[in-house]
Amino acid sequence: KRSRLKLLRDTPSSTLDGRAIALLANIEGPGDVTHIRAANADGVGLYRTEFLFMGREDLPGEDEQFEAYRTVLKALAGRPVTIRTFDVGADKMLSMPNQREEPNPALGLRAIRFSLAEPQMFRTQLRALLRASAYGQLRIMIPMVSHVQELDQALTMIALARDELLAERHRIADRVEIGAMIEVPAAALAIGMFKKRVSFLSLGTNDLIQYTLAIDRTDDAVVHLYDPLHPAVLKLISGTIQAGTRLGMSVSVCGEMAGDPNYTRLLLGMGLREFSMHPTNVLEIKQQLLHADYSELAPRVQRILRMEEPARLREAVMRLAN
Ligand code: PEP
Ligand code: MG
C-alpha cells in the first residue's frame, strides 16, 4: 500500500473538480525534513518549537534557535514554514527546576500565556525567528489565544524585536505573516476579533476538542468521551473555516483530525483548503482528496452539520468517508 501511495508524491493535490488543496507537514525539528521531502509536502503547517526546550535543564539560546529555524526554512526552499511560538505548559512541561505547581495545568499558564509571563524567553525566540526569516517564507503562529490583548502584546513584541534587529543590521524578510491558533472555544466563537490582526488561522483540533468537551486529553479515565464528531465540535470547526475565509484569512487544520482519512471529506466539504499533519500521513490524505468532489461534498456536509442526533451524524460522516 505504501509503495502505491509513493506514486502520488508528485501528483498535484486537488479534488476531482479541480479545487487545489495544500497538504502541509507538522514537524518537531530539523530532523523531520527528510519526512517532508519523502512526502513532498507543500510546506510546514506546524513546527512545534517547544521540543527544542524539552528534556533539558537549560534553555536554548538565540543562536541555537536561529540555527534550528534556519535549517528548516532553507530546506523548504521558499515553501511556507509555519513556526509556532513555544507551547509549553500542561502536557508539555519544561524540565527546569522551580516550576510552579499549578492547580489545573491545562487551564493555567501555558502557550502564549506562558510566553507573555516570561518575556525574556519569548523575546529570544522572536529574535531567532525574525533572523531566520531571511532564509525562506516564515509564518509565525501564536498558540492558544483566547483574548486579543494576548495577540496585541505578541504583535508589539514582534515589532520591537524587528526594530532592534534592523538597528543591529540583521537581515529580515520584508514580510512575515502572523497567525493565531484557534484551539479555545472562545476564539472559535469570535473569529471577527482576529481580522486586521493576523493573516491566517490554524485550528488546533486536539485542544479545541479538549476545551469544548471539558475532557482532559491526557486523562485515561475520561478519554473515551473525547470525540471529534461531537456536534458542538463540528459547529466550531466549520464556523471557524467559514468566518475566517469570509474575512479574508486563510484557515488550516493542524490537529490530528487533518491527518485522519476518516475526516478528509468532512473537512473538505466544510470548505477547508489547508491540511497540516504528520508527514507520513500526507500521501494517504492526498489519495483521499484526489477522489473527492468538492461541489458534491459541500451540500452533503451542510446537511450533516444540521443533524442533531449524534449517532446519525456519526453514521453520515462514516458514509461520507467511504
Ligand atoms: C492542537 O491542539 O490540535 C495542536 C495541533 O497543538 P498540540 O497538539 O501541539 O497541542
Ligand atoms: Mg494545541
Number of strands: 8
Bound molecules: phosphoenolpyruvate, magnesium ion
Order of helices and strands: HEHEHEHHEHEHEHHEHEHHH
The fraction of residues in strands falls at: 5-15%
Count of helical stretches: 13
Query: Order of strands in the sheet with the most strands?
Result: 7-6-5-4-3-2-1-8
Q: TL;DR of this structure?
A:
With 322 residues, the protein is α/β, with parallel strands linked by helices. The protein has helices at residues 2-6, 33-39, 62-75, 112-117, 119-132, 148-167, 185-188, 205-213, 231-246, 264-269, 282-290, 294-305, 310-321, and strands at 22-27, 44-48, 80-84, 137-142, 177-182, 200-203, 250-253, 274-277. Helix content is 42%, strand content 12%.
Explain this structure:
The chain is of the alpha/beta class. The protein has 13 helices and eight strands. Helix 6 links the parallel strand 4 and strand 5. Helix 3 runs parallel beside helix 5, helix 5 packs across helix 6 and helix 12 runs antiparallel to helix 13. The relative contact order is 0.14. The model has no long low-confidence stretch (mean pLDDT 95). Phosphoenolpyruvate binds next to strand 2 and helix 8.
